[in-house]
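Write out the bound-state structure for adenosine-5'-diphosphate.
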Amino acid sequence: MKQKIVVALGGNALGNSPDEQLKLVKETAKPIVDLIQEGHQVILAHGNGPQVGMINLGMETASKSVAATPEMPFPECGAMSQGYIGYHLQNAIREELLNREMTMPVATVVTQVIVDKDDQAFKNPTKPIGAFYSKDEALKLQAEKGFDMVEDAGRGWRRVVPSPIPVDVAEKTTVKTLVDNGHVVITVGGGGIPVVQEGNRLIGVPAVIDKDFASGKMAEILDADYLIILTAVEQVAINYGKADEKWLSTLSIDEAEQYMNEGHFAPGSMLPKVKAAVTFAKSKPGRKALITSLERAKEGIQGKTGTVIMVQ
Ligand code: ADP
Ligand code: MG
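---
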């Protein structure tokens, strides 16, 4: 059955430097183009944590040492990351399509995602961005720059910014029109540029919308059938990293809600994926979500691996 699929790419699909990213996206393009080749409509979303962190840090360093370089606000850094990542993705997907003699157009839409200015997240920053640091380095940055720093899922220390919930996508009609006309669209990059609405104005705010939530919201808006979240792990686990770790091939809404309450999924990494998957799967009968790794995407879509979240 031909489906409308929103695919959300995690950080491991992109790497940490332009060279690495350009190389990695060629691999990332393959499972995406497999789906397109099977006749599915594919909409691509992606994260931007390391990239927006790199751009932000680079611009900040330059503004401090080069007189003519202005300070770059965080939403503008997010917009730059959408362009930079979108360029590499559209370049790689176009090439992979042409290698298989497919000619559909591919484009990135710079996407603003509307958030609520009263979202509680603005009082409690939780979203990790940028490089990993040792504890000592992290505490130094906290003291010197006033960054909020936290330990991220056992992998090191990172800066955190607020992560508000997406309410709407400003460019949704453009994305829908392109998708309906057979274009492959890259959208809500990095979760979208967070903006708050004041009358006719959309004003950028320093925050990062979780790309898992933004992808789920976009999937609902586009009336997609399937939300696929591609990350670094093949399946979702309970008791993750413990002796009694158990990998799950299916997850009902009730089970997911119980496991979320029991704290099985790390906030800022697996929790937003499971939450986004549950919200999407519950939003309309027949919708389902899959969480698996980029490497096993093909097998996951064939039902051979991954964790499927659906109403049972
Ligand atoms: P992405 O860049 O794809 O969003 P994240 O690092 O944010 O990736 O989230 C994926 C990571 O979540 C996995 O690599 C794993 O280390 C971590 N994780 C936390 N809890 C779990 C869990 N219960 N099951 C599987 N992975 C988990
Ligand atoms: Mg993540």
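---
The chain has a mean pLDDT of 93.
Residues 4-114+167-292 form a domain with the Carbamate kinase fold (CATH 3.40.1160.10).
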